[in-house]
């Protein structure tokens, strides 16, 4: 679609950015909410959350870069709405980490800081991922799920899609 054709549907670049950002952040909330509310242990849910979130950021890295790194170009009211969604994504991850701490699965002295670090790890994939790179989105997702579980001090076998690996 040409830039001129876009402006038939969107009056400004900011409106287009807002729409893209809204879709991306709603997808993030859906991914993390499903993991938070899913069955299984906190370790299984955290592994699923990170694996799926990272895979989305790799598979859609161009869109994800716009969604994650262009917030400063949003109008004040749109910025506030998107920041609210980001707070909800943080709350979803924090909830899983808190569940793991309460169950004795995780050893996390700073839950808010660790949750932020986990999200940052996932989001940063959009910055560097390339289709012609050494790893597939699935491989990066699995790697980061294992890293996330080590970050929270999980000592058991790493839950993986389709089974458990040691």
Q: What does this 3D model show about the protein?
A:
The chain has helices spanning 3-9, 13-37, 42-59, 61-69, 76-102, 111-128, 137-151; strands at residues 158-160, 163-165. The protein is mainly α. It has a two-stranded antiparallel ribbon. Helix 2 (13-37) runs antiparallel to helix 3, helix 2 runs parallel beside helix 5 and helix 3 packs across helix 4. The longest helix is centred in the middle third of the chain and has 27 residues, at 76-102. The chain is globular and about 50 Å long. Mean pLDDT is 89; it is low at 162-166.
- End-to-end Cα distance, whole Å, is 48 Å
Count of distinct strands: 2
Q: What proportion of the residues form beta strands (DSSP E)?
A: under 5%
By secondary-structure content and strand pairing, the structural class works out as mainly alpha
State Rg: 17 Å
Q: What's the layout of helices and strands?
A:
Blueprint: H1 3-9, H2 13-37, H3 42-59, H4 61-69, H5 76-102, H6 111-128, H7 137-151, E1 158-160, E2 163-165
Antiparallel strand pairs: 1-2
Helix pairs in contact: 2-3, 2-4, 2-5, 3-4, 3-5, 3-6, 3-7, 4-6, 5-6
Outline of this structure?
By secondary structure, the protein is mostly helical. It has seven helices and two strands. The protein is 72% helix and 4% strand.
């Amino acid at each position: 679609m040409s830039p001129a054709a876009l402006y038939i549907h969107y009056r400004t670049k900011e409106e287009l950015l807002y729409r893209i950002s809204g879709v991306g952040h709603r997808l993030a909330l859906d991914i993390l909410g499903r993991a938070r509310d899913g069955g299984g242990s906190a370790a299984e849910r955290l592994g699923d959350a990170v694996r799926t979130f990272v895979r989305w950021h790799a598979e859609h890295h161009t869109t994800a870069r716009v969604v994650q790194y262009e917030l400063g170009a949003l109008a004040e009211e749109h910025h506030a709405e998107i920041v609210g969604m980001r707070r909800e994504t943080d709350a979803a991850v924090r909830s899983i980490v808190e569940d793991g701490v309460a169950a004795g699965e995780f050893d996390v002295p700073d839950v808010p800081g660790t949750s932020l670090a986990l999200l940052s790890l996932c989001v940063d994939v959009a910055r560097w991922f390339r289709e012609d790179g050494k790893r597939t989105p699935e491989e990066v997702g699995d790697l980061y799920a294992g890293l996330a579980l080590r970050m929270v001090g999980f000592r058991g076998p790493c839950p993986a899609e389709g089974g458990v690996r040691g």
